[in-house]
Amino acid sequence: MKQNYKPGTLCVRAxxxxxxxxxxxxxxxxxxxxxxxxxxxxxxxxxxxxxxYFYTRLANPTCDAVAxxxxxxxxxxxxxxxxxxxxxxxxxxxxxxxxxxxxxASSEIYGGTxxxxxxxxxxxxxxxxFVNPETSEEEIAxxxxxxxxxxxxxxxxxPGCTVLDIEKFARIAHAHNVPLIIDNTFxxxxxxxxxxxxxxxxxxxxxxxxxxxATQVGGCVVDSGNFDWDAxxxxxxGLTTPDESYHGLTYTKAFGKLGYTTKLVAQLMRDxxxxxxxxxxxxxxxxxxTLHLRMRQHSANAQRIAEFLASDERVAWIRYSGLPSxxxxxxxxxxxxxxxxxxxxxxxxxxxxxxVRFMDSLRLVNIATHxxxxxxxVLHPASHTHRQLSDEQLRQAGVSPELIRLSxxxxxxxxxxxxxxxxxxxx
Length: 427
Description:
The protein is of the alpha/beta class. The protein contains 17 helices and twelve strands.
């Protein structure tokens, strides 16, 4: 959209502009293939000489419309939908790394991402060093190597709810001539646009707030178009030197600011798949249209619940950056002035079983693996999402045995509060 519309308008309108007599919702193009009149027409698509569609694993009109909406919301030049948030993070890193490469990541990230980076990508020959995001710039910089190709973090960490100092991470990344990649799932572009603070690439699990109703699994990679790959061409040969699988085409030369996005589709999506179904993209778009309204309510409800928990003597500690007592409150006012999302991390006095008794006593709140949903849900990461990690890895990821992740929904806040109060009375 050409006009400088605000996020609420972009949530509803961006990515797809119907012409005269066309449907107001992007149609579900539920087709694997597309017909052409001549062999040359299709050949030009395979050579990346023309824009268009020939196979849905690579591109689909429904998926592209929704990706364009997310790119506009983030302020990026291009975006690609993936089949999951895990695939988005894999593709974002793998697009600039190869066997023999190294990257640095905040240790306070989602357990599944930690495992992807520490275990699976290591088997691919790509090593990751994890750093405490709160340490000094010098200590984080010490983790960089000559073969380091990216720095990664999460705007709001899952499940620890810490807030990343984006500008600090951007300074470190750019001092080492590598891009900063940030998972912006919990904040969404409604609450924070990391590109405005120096980030280069953003990822999302669109399964979470963007969908909002637990109807589809998906992910997204968004490129700011700001990182100068050619200025560091020796570090990123996949982008800046000829790709023999596309007749010697060089992505940055052929596509300029869209080089990173085009390579991600033309190479990674072509060879690895991980493409979303058009039906899922349609469902995601339905959720995006109310994202700006829901994030406001999630944040307001969570603030009220966090204030209650902070005042209850049975609570040992709480992390929610909307609280003035939170160590990241000032940082959140800078990066997240319009709300800190609906996710709260806290611990109860007692042991692991105390947390279990509390959770099992809840009536309205769901015990669920999901997070960032319209429905309030709760999880014990050490027993569930992070159970594959060792105790030392749990501590590195900011997860203690008693940590409870509460994802506050958009129900009436009094009903949520009453359910939490009655469950607290059972411990």
